[in-house]
Amino acid sequence: MDASRRVRGQASAEMIVTLGIILMVLMLIGYVIFQRWVRTTDLKIYITGQRIANSIADNVNTVRSIGDGFSMETTLPFRMYSTQGYEVVFYNEEPTVFVHGGSFARSRTLYFSAPISTSVVGCNLHECNNLCNTTETSICLQVNRSLDIKVKSHMDGVYLTPEYNLVQGILGQQAIVSEIRPFSGSNVSADYVKIAANVSGTPETNRRSIAYLYRDETDKSLYLVFHHRDMQGMVQLNFSDMMGNMTVFFSDADGELNMSASPQGDWQVVGGERGGILKINTDYMRICINPEQMSPSATRYWYWVNRDYTRITLDKQDGRILCLTYP
């Protein structure tokens, strides 16, 4: 009996040892496989990060070489790996594009870069409002979703812009998108009435509001113009999401166009012509406009006007936001 128990006990011990060895071998194999998978994943991140940097640099260099006004469309992927976003950074006076992304395995930031042919890079994408915890001496684009953008050569620089200059609708829903083209001349004040008078041809244009961009060809200044004509009622526009330095160039009455912490335009229209002009003190701009209080009689017809006098009907419904970018 005792011998039988000893045999069974020895067999059990040998089985436990064998299972332990098998488990250790399996753990070792699993560890080796995991490490190889981690290295493969990080290699993919390295390849993706460098590919993104090279792609942006290729677009910047191409539009820069062709000249002013040329643009190329590109898509920035929304991740390097899984749900991890990344940052595209341009530092002032440094002709290089940098891409910052997170390592999968080591929880540290990875840096990728590519040379570009200019150090003058601007951005009027909404995502560029985020400084990415850097300084104001850099432009930082935070990418957490797939972005369709334009890379455009404009004057002496290159700009990252949305696909369309005019987007209107409710945020998060499908929006109306259009291109905008500024008027040009040598005196925005002198052309203020003339341009408005040329937006005619149908009876409804006698009572309408218009907005347009104006480029002064003499000093290259850019203006955003609002003109309200032959109406009664109130027009109030709230401005937000502003990029590019802007100042009030003209308002038909003191205080009606306010660029303070809560900028707004407020016109008490009783007939005749009312409006205001913002001067854009940079080569680019972004501004969103919410028609918070718009009397039906005052803004029954509200248009964006392009330099060829084509008109885009602007939405006045509550919750509808109009966002403009240039270039």
Would you kindly provide a written description of the structure presented here, covering whatever features stand out?
The longest helix is centred in the N-terminal third of the chain and has 65 residues, at 2-66. The mean pLDDT is 80. The protein has a seven-stranded antiparallel sheet with strand order 10-9-22-19-14-17-16, with no helix packed on it. Strands 11, 12, 13, 15, 18, 20 and 21 form a seven-stranded mixed sheet that branches. Strands 1-7-8-5 form a four-stranded mixed sheet, with helices on one face. It contains two helices and 22 strands. By secondary structure, it is of the alpha+beta class. It folds into two domains: 45-162, no CATH class; 166-326, no CATH class. The radius of gyration is 30 Å and the shape is elongated. Strand 2 (86-91) and strand 3 (96-102) form a beta hairpin.
Short description:
The protein has 327 residues and is α+β, with helices and mostly antiparallel strands. It has 2 helices and 22 strands.
